[in-house]
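Hi R.,

Here's the chain you asked about this morning:
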Amino acid sequence: MKFINILLLALCAMSPAFASPGAHGPNGEHLDGPAATAGGTAVARVETFTESFELVGHLAGGELSVLIDRYETNAPVLNGKLEVAYKGLKAQAKFHADIGDYAIDDPKLLAALSKPGSHPLLFTLIAGDESDLLEGTLVVRTEPTAEHDQFDGWPLGIGAALAAAIVAAIVIARRRLNRKEK
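And here is the predicted structure, written out as tokens:
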């Protein structure tokens, strides 16, 4: 009986030390939230979609990099024309055929978008005979979000499942010991 209690206490004490294999990258950054850049600020991200297209963009490395797919098929939209507008500033994107992304590197626009906060963007896309307007908000954070500060271990569901499994194992072990003693 004492052995089971000591085992339970040891497992409970050790559980916060374990990290989920996908929870952290090689440098300790969170993989389920905004990635951190070398300067310690969060990489800004924008996501939006319409009935025809979906767009994901990241502000990092001196450019706003944008990937665009067809909403129904997830097929990439290549060689289109993309323009982004923000508070009176407009910039044309350059298409990178090697990566399949659209890059905006206008210095004035990037300076405005790099400031912490929420930045509403309007993307104008022309792809062949189709055109669309996509609205999205680029969010730039300089500090980790509260959800990451509060709990830096296993996701709550995995921890609860592990605790339930440990309790079940102890109950089964105690019942077996009690049967053997009778």
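One quick note: The domain at 44-140 is CATH 2.60.40 (Immunoglobulin-like).

Cheers,
M.
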